[in-house]
Design brief:
two-stranded antiparallel sheet, 5% strand
Length: 99
């Protein structure tokens, strides 16, 4: 068994702050993805809410599924851009820690 109390924490306050910001970002984006993706199987399987036809045989379920695809791409791009910003801020702290 491993002892989780002996996990190495970054010595730099900046790295600790960046790690906390990254964890907050992941939490927010995970919540958004869960709120977006979980209702489809529930609404599709247990209600008739998604059975309506919007146009030319395209149902609400298809539109909702397409919206999920858009959300997934948007979340991934947003995450990549924010993490790149955090990595730029962490570079000086890493150099100081390695010295």
């Amino acid at each position: 068994m491993s002892d989780i109390t002996n996990i190495d924490r970054p010595e730099s306050e900046l790295l600790t702050e960046l790690a906390d910001r990254r964890a907050a970002l992941i939490t927010r984006l995970s919540a958004l993805v869960l709120v977006t993706f979980f209702p489809l199987p529930i609404l599709g399987g247990f209600t008739s809410l998604l059975d309506g036809v919007l146009f030319s045989g395209v149902t609400v379920a298809w539109a909702y599924a397409f919206a999920q695809f858009v959300v997934a791409i948007a979340v991934a791009r947003y995450y990549m851009s924010k993490v790149a910003e955090l990595e730029l801020g962490a570079a000086p702290a890493r150099e100081d820690q390695q010295s």
